[in-house]
Structures are given as structure tokens and as C-alpha cells.
Amino acid sequence: MKPAPFTRHVPRTLDEAVNALAEFAPRDGRVLAGGQSLVPIMAFRMASPAHLIDINEVEGLDRLAVDDGYLSIGACVRHGAFHRPVVEGPIGRLLAHVAGHIAHFPIRMRGTFCGSLAHADPSSEWCLVSATLGARLVLKSVRGERVVPIDEFLDGIMTTALQEDELLVEARLPLLADDTRFGFYEFSRRAGDFAMSAALVTYRLVDGRIADPRVGIGGAEARARRIPEAENVLSGQLPSTELFASAGEAAALAVDPIEDIQTTAEYRRDLVQAVTRRALDNSTR
After folding, report:
1. What residues are paired with 72 via a beta bridge?
2. Along the chain (285 residues), what's the average pLDDT of each consecutive run of 10 residues?
3. What per-residue confidence (pLDDT) applies to 2?
4. Does some domain include residue 32?
5. pLDDT for res 216
6. CA–CA distance, 57 with 59 (Å, rounded to integer)
7. CA angle 223, 261, 152 (to 5 degrees)
8. Fewer Cβ close by (within 10 Å): the C or N end of the chain?
9. 8 A C-beta contact, residue 138 and residue 169
10. What is the reported pTM?
């Protein structure tokens, strides 16, 4: 099938973009950045927006820079920008590692980091990264600008706190300490498919013991989030296979897994245990 007829608007500045969004969002308007989620559902007539505000020509939205302890990622920064570390240190290596798991190469060359957050698929790798690290998101409209923590932004399956006239302008990821270790593991039926469950862990070692652990789970629940129960198991302990297995068990007990056409809730709970343990087993600097 082909998309229903629509009008494409191409703003050149951020002010033009938010003004266009204010005008056309109430008239069934949508933002187009990478289009890797929106365009397919338009082709299947699952969405038929009357107006597309194409932000690809907006100056400055491809910005990727370090500001005040954060990595700032503009709305038009592609997944492919992270194929190699964009900054020194563990955050650059972490993003490069995760980027290689996103869909397929052509999709990574068009899809955007912020577009993935705005789409809010529970299986999104960038939603998992953002939730685990505590990202802050910059939302802009003609009414002004607000900065929203990721936990307040993600609201459920493909549901966010983004108002219809707001543009997700930038995501800010906190930089990680130089001695941070990280591990990532996801399970899908085939390479490039959406993850049925995924885990991201970060922590530091202080006198050989785990400090500042973060355990994030995606794909298993309605939204990606941290799992404090698993973090409590790890905190202050000596790393070991047994400890990592216990953290996986704690994560599995803590989640409220979704059930869909792919699998049952209980199978997803088992997956959470497995991916958490494997992310910890594979953790590295």
C-alpha cells in the first residue's frame, strides 16, 4: 500500500518548526525526522497524518556535543552516528556497542536517537539506555521550553509526556565516570528484530566491591526502566557469577512482564533473568 495524501512542511529554523507544529499538530500533523517508525505505519495506512513537519533541514538539530557533564544529542542525530565512539570514555564505548544491535544498517543510517525516544517502543535500545543512565529531554513549543527526566517522559507502550505541539529537541545523557563498567545483552528471535527482553548494567568497582550499580530492563514491560531490586542485590558486593545470578533473579521477580503475540508473560520473566545475568557476566570497561 501507499500512504494517504499529506502535505509536507520543511522548516529551516527551530522557531519555524515549533510554529508549524503549533499550527498543524491540531490538524493531524506529525513530526518527520528519520521516519523509520512513522513511514512504515503510514504505508500500511495504520496512520494517515494530514501534515508532516519535516525537521531534517532545521539548523542545529544534528548537533552532538558535550555540555556541562552531559552528551547532548540533537533531534536529527542518526543511530549510525554512534557506530564508533562519539566521545572518549565509557559512555562513547557503551553507545557504540548498543548501536550495533539496533535493527539493520540501512535503518541505523536514517533513524534518529530522539525519534526512537519519541516513538517509545518498549523494545527500543535507546529508551533502555536513556532510562538506565537517567537522561533528560528538552521539549520545545511556542509556549516555551521544558526539560523532562526520562522517567517522567516514558509513560507506557508508545506513550510519552510529549504534548502534540511539542518537539523533542535534544536528549542529554550524563557522562560516566572513567572507571565505569557496562554490560548489555538483548534477546530477539532473529538478528535485527525487536528485542523480547534486554538489559543494560553499569557499575564501578571501589576496593573491589560494586558501587553505583544501575540495572535497566527493556522489552519486557510497557516501558524501559531501572530495577532497584536488582541494584540493591549488587551494591557493595564482590562481583561473582553467583551474585550476578542473584541479581538476575531479583530483576525477574520485580518486573510486570507484558504478554503479546510473540510470547507469554512468564517466558518474558525468564528472559529478564537471563539477559540481566548475561549483561553482568559480559560487563567490561
Report:
1. 65, 172
2. 90 97 95 93 90 97 96 98 97 98 95 97 97 98 98 97 97 98 95 92 98 98 98 98 98 96 93 98 91
3. 84
4. yes
5. 98
6. 6
7. 10
8. N
9. yes
10. 0.96
Q: Let me know if residue 2 belongs to a domain.
A: no
Amino acid at 59: E
**Among 55, 46, 69, 26, residue whose Cα is nearest residue 118:** 55
Query: Number of C-alpha atoms within 13 angstroms, CB side, residue 227?
Result: 32
**Cβ–Cβ < 8 Å for 185, 196:** no
Residue 134 is assigned to a structural domain of this protein: yes
Q: How far is Cα 267 from Cα 196, in angstroms, rounded to an integer?
A: 10
DSSP string covering the chain, please? --PPP-EEE--SSHHHHHHHHHHHGGGTEEEESS-TTHHHHHHTTS---SEEEE-TTSTTTT-EEEETTEEEEETT-BGGGGSS-SSSSHHHHHHHHHHTTSS-HHHHTT-BHHHHHHHT-TT-HHHHHHHHHT-EEEEEETTEEEEEEHHHHEEETTEES--TT-EEEEEEEEPPPTT-EEEEEEE-SSTTSPPSEEEEEEEEEETTEEEEEEEEEESSSSS-EE-HHHHHHHTTPPP-HHHHHHHHHHHHHH------SS--HHHHHHHHHHHHHHHHHT-B-
On the CB side of 140, CA atoms within 13 Å amount to 16
Hey, CA dihedral for 37, 38, 41, 46, is it positive or negative?
A: positive
- Whether 45 and 77 map to the same domain: the answer is no
With respect to residue 59, please indicate whether it lies within any of the assigned structural domains.
no
d(CA 212, CA 285): 15
Q: Please, which residues have CB within 8 angstroms of residue 91's CB and are 6 or more apart in sequence?
A: 71, 133, 173, 175, 176
Residue 234 belongs to domain spanning: 181-281
Please check whether residues 158 and 256 belong to one and the same domain.
no
